[in-house]
Amino acid sequence: MNLLAFQAKFPDEAACENHLIQVRWPEGFICGHCQSQAAWYIQSRRTFQCKQCRRQESITANTMFHRSRTALQEWFLAIYLVCESKKGISGLALARHLGMKDERRAYTLKGHIQNAMTERNNRYLLEGFVEVDEAFFGGKTHGQGTGSVGKTAVLVAVSVNEQDTPDFVRFKVIDNTKGDTVEAAVKTLIAASCHVVTDGHTSHNHFSEIFQEHIPCTLERPEQSREYLPWVHILISNAKRFILGTHHSVQHLQNYLEEFSWRFNRRFGNLFDRMLISALNYRPADRLA
Ligand SMILES: [Zn+2]
Asked: Which value, to the nearest 10 degrees, does the dihedral of the CA atoms of residues 127, 133, 138, 141 take?
């Protein structure tokens, strides 16, 4: 959806409200208390009232938009800009596009969108055949080796399908590349039923006990890792480009990597509606913008 189409689709709050209701209740409103489908809609309060049990339910209750002072139109545009820009968007650019004088508000919106993406990413473990490697982000050069001073270690996992193309990617910032650390992290990304391909580094020594199968491709030359683990390396370079191109910082590296992987893992869908679904299923712990 291009920007003109987006603006034509959501010209005002009512249009945003209607779309939110459609995405939240695709089969029509269902009362969360008694499951009745008969309800009145009270527009002024953005609330359904069940005709059977009389309970009221706000259309934004228990979602990212819960008790938000930000208009849905602003939220929708922020979501559109974050999701549709392939290279991501900085908080500063977001503030400019939204016409926000106080850029902290834009950073807050973006923070909530990223948290909703993270929450969604964490619901799934990678399955099937998975390439795993460690990468180092930050610093002046981007080596793949261990012991890179001043860089942040990241565990990267990519599930690859029968057509030898990638399905899904996950990243996890880790304190170091020692066996214990890598093992603890890898369990949070990959299902135990997986067949896992690695470069046979010592930090993967216990992978055969964690996963159904561990396929270590012990390398004679470092450049061979691109042959045995092609997708993990392509996604590492793409993620590095994404981060350098937009954010110029690895300070919030995990958040950026969550944003990158959320977008990659949904690249064939309607990103805006997929983000609305993620937002409707996410309730921030802290106060909203
Ligand atoms: Zn009811």
From this structure: -140
Q: How many Å apart are CA 117 and CA 256, to the nearest integer?
A: 10
Residue 29 Cα to ligand 1 midpoint, Å, equals 10
Pairing of strands 152-160, 213-216: unpaired
Q: How far apart are CA 262 and CA 15, in angstroms?
A: 26
Q: From ligand 1's centre to the CA of 21, what distance in Å?
A: 17
**Where are the domain boundaries for CATH 3.30.420.10 in the chain?**
129-250
What architecture (CATH level 2) is domain 129-250? 2-Layer Sandwich (3.30)
What is the distance in A from the centroid of ligand 1 to the CA of 39?
Answer: 8
CA of 47 to the centre of ligand 1 (A): 13
User: H-helix or E-strand containing 216?
Assistant: strand 213-216
| 92 HSE (CA, 13 A, CB side) | 3
The CA 54 to ligand 1 mean position distance, Å, reads: 6
**CB 154 within 8 Å of CB 171:** yes
CA separation, residue 92 to residues 110, 244, 263 (Å): 10, 15, 20
| Adjacency order of strands within the sheet including 56-58 | 39-42, 47-50, 56-58
pLDDT at 142: 44
Q: For residue range 187-245, list pLDDT tens digits in order.
A: 999 999 999 999 988 899 999 999 999 999 877 776 777 778 999 999 999 998 888 76
What the block records as the tokens of 90 is: 């900085």
Distance (angstroms) between ligand 1 centre and the Cα of 17 equals 21
Tell me the torsion sign for CA atoms 144, 146, 148, 152: positive
Helix (H, G, I), strand (E, B) or coil at 121: helix
Spacing, Cα 30 to ligand 1 middle (Å): 8
Question: Residue 177: exposed, middle, or buried by beta-carbon count in 10 A (0-12, 13-18, 19+)?
Answer: buried
Type of residue at 233: H
